Amino acid sequence: MLNKSNLLGLCCFILGVGLTSGYFLFLHSMPIQAQQSQPFPYKSIVIKQANDESLNSTDEHVNPADGNFQAESIAPYTHKIATLTNELELKTKQLKRVEQALKLAQLDQLDFAKQLEEKFIAEDENSQWSYEVETALTDFLITSDLSNTAQLTSLECKQTLCKFSLVADKTNQQGHVQWRELNDKLALMPWWQQFKLTSSNSTDEQIDFIVSTKE
């Protein structure tokens, strides 16, 4: 039979084991409780992810729509710009061709005028014909109402060619316009039809003619 001392020792042993087991159980349960007592980081992460997903979702739904709207609004202007660019390129090419043709025509005119000038120098003077052409030109200026805007300053005729100059009045500001008008009216004169070839060179102040009865 157990005596009192042995019984007391056994109780102390059992109590010690119980305390030790309780202490280890307490330590083991602390991380779980700590995790359960601090829910905020986990919840905040979930909320942040939800917000990110909502932003991403919004971007996905808004940006493509904006892009489509911009593309649809810009498309008509892009087509117009392309059309205008093509038209401009075409007009530029046409202008270059006209400029080249004009340069060639000017060179041909210079060569033609030079040939007439050389023939004029080589021919003998015809005083009677000079008088007739001068009279016809003077009457033409009067009847065509051009005597106040242009004056005959020199005239000389040879056997088949005549050379004369007209000077604009100082108060006349029409420039080349008046010379075009003069040329148009001269072409309608019966006596002018005797000339088969004509060459003229003009500035705003003066126009020079060389005309020939032979081609």
For the structure shown, list the relevant keywords.
alpha+beta, rod-shaped, single chain, 215 residues, 4 helices, 4-stranded antiparallel beta sheet, 4 strands, Gyrase A, domain 2
Overall pLDDT score: 75
Order of strands, widest sheet: 1-2-4-3
Structural class: alpha+beta
The CATH topology of the domain at 124-212 is what?
Gyrase A, domain 2
Tell me the number of strands. Answer: 4
Return the string of H and E elements: HHHEEHEE
Number of helices: 4
What portion of residues is helical? 55-70%
CATH architecture annotation name of the domain at 124-212: 2-Layer Sandwich
What is the CATH level 1 assignment of the domain at 124-212? Answer: Alpha Beta
Main pleated-sheet profile: 4 strands, antiparallel
Tell me about this structure:
A four-stranded antiparallel beta sheet has the order 1-2-4-3, with helices on both faces. The protein has 215 residues and is α+β, with helices and mostly antiparallel strands. The N and C termini lie far apart (166 Å). Mean pLDDT is 75; it is low at 32-62. Strand 1 and strand 2 (161-168) form a beta hairpin. Among the domains are: 62-122; 124-212, Gyrase A, domain 2 (2-Layer Sandwich), CATH 3.30.1360. It contains four helices and four strands. The protein has helices at 4-37, 40-122, 127-143, 176-186; strands at 150-157, 161-168, 197-202, 206-212. Helices cover 67% and strands 13% of the residues.
